[in-house]
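I am hoping you can look over what I have pasted underneath with an eye to the fold:
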Amino acid sequence: MEKLVEARDHSRAPVLYAEAELMDAAQALASRLQLPLANSASRPLDVLATQTRSDTLFLHLGAAGLSIMGSSMLLLPDFSLFKPRIRPDRLGRELVVRAVRIRGAETPVRVVDATAGLGEDAFLLAAAGFEVCMCEQNPIIAALLEDALRRAQQDLELAPIAARMRLIAGDAREILLQLDAAPDVVYLDPMFPERKKRSAVKKKLQLLQQLEEPCDVAAELLDAAIGAHPRKIVIKRPAKGPHLGQLKPAYSVAGKAIRFDVIP
């Protein structure tokens, strides 16, 4: 097996596969991402995960889908886990849905999620009926999101939601300036700085942060969002965090841990 990469070069995280029938798909993925390929069949993945260094990451393509592994953890994006949250009695109470909603809009509201990540907020918006274009610059995170979206399209309950989600792998600062028409909403979620509290869930988010550091071009993203001339911009922030770009919002939709600043 090829030696796993160090944390400072996660862009070279190898693609692992165990099942022979997935070899062609793994090869195609590794080629597209320009990553090394390794067969992990000779070592069980749970053992491999515990024996690798905590600062090592690798992709694993298995029967369940594409996941990222490291620090003895596995992160497999899975929109089916959100089914309880998209029930009609709960979806309308989601803060992101409340913040992005445009009162009185009769046609489907078009949203550009400029910092899609693993698409969780985009999925909630699509479930609420929004048409969502997702932008993700990191190619590995984009691949994880693409695979999760593919699996959602195969789920009868989730397929109509996934049909309202479109992924563009690339820099949102460029994509926003190349849109054919102005979106109704641009949604920005610059990754929060690492917090001191560490639960199991947050550790998985830290695993993701090893791939993509907290956004250091947030001000440029905001400028690009303004340049796209949407009806409004929605920005996700820590509940007590500063306004992005020191631009005061017209109002905010806030919870205990996060808030959504709305700029008309």
